[in-house]
Amino acid sequence: MLIIILVLLSIIFFTFIYIASNFLTEKYKRLEDDIIKDNFAIILLGSGLVKIDGKVLLNNRAYSRVLEACRIYFLAKQCGIHYKIIASGGDIHNYGISEAEAYSEIMLSLGVDSQDIILEKKSLNTFGNAKFTKEITKELAFDKYLLVTSSLHMKRAERIFTNMGIKIIPAISDTPSKDPIVVTHETLGIVRSYFYNYS
């Protein structure tokens, strides 16, 4: 009987993961080259840092986000369009360096102009990303922002940024996955987003 219950629970769990992952990612695809327009900018969302042997490094999801932001930046440059990148993410783990600063170092090493990088170093979660980025965008005059984050995170990020009044265009940085931990986290995050104060 116990085995049957465990099997049924497993089926329910993996069915939930499958349905939830499709719900989170089905409307998003890689940014098409022809979306590059004048007077846009890029918002790059943090995805955490890790410390290995005393060194603070980007995790895999973070690398994909940084690389996608750089791809869009250089694509715009080839079209004669000048983009700014707002890197958003604080020092969540108290490593002594914010996500925004760590991502900036990688972008600089890849050739992004330092004057084109704007750092948002206060946020500790997606709501904070939107809240503190909004303060920055008030001083800017861009029409829309290309929001760069991972596919599973995009639905929640898009909802929060839109409710904050920031006009965004989704720009996913990876192919959809079905990581059960991430899927569960993002699904619960969307539920929480309905209770935020966006004023």
UniProtKB/TrEMBL annotation:
Listed name of the protein: DUF218 domain-containing protein
Transmembrane segments: 6-24
GO CC annotation: plasma membrane
Residue stretches making up the DUF218 domain: 41-187
CDD domains: YdcF-like (cd06259)
Key words, A-Z: Membrane, Transmembrane, Transmembrane helix
GO biological process: Gram-negative-bacterium-type cell wall biogenesis; peptidoglycan metabolic process
Highest classification ranks of the organism: Bacteria, Pseudomonadati, Pseudomonadota, Gammaproteobacteria, Thiotrichales
Domain of life: Bacteria
InterPro entries reported in the protein's UniProt record: Cell_Envelope_Assoc, DUF218, Rossmann-like_a/b/a_fold
Originating organism: Francisella frigiditurris
